[in-house]
Amino acid sequence: MKYALLICDDETVSPSNEELADDPVHQAWVDDLERRGGKLVGVRLRPVVDATTVRVRDGETLVSDGPFAETKDFVGGFVIVECADLDEAIQIAAGHPYARWGGVEVRPVWE
Q: Whole-structure pTM over 0.90, yes or no?
């Protein structure tokens, strides 16, 4: 079964790409995911300051800068994984470094 792991954190404390590349915990997580052979796709998203939100109301397209919701935590990236079951997806999510200070939402993918 496929699961989306939504990597959520507070961008004010989020490490840079360079810091993540040098983080042995993050590298161990990536290595474990590769060993499992379950990673289908994954990307880190740019900060919410670069986001654009699009809504359509009564036929009118409304475009605004930034995120739709005002919250401290934002989705900073996502990984799509193929797992045997939810337990394995939770195990993978728990190993992600962001789970230590942010959160990793595990959501099944419609197939």
A: no
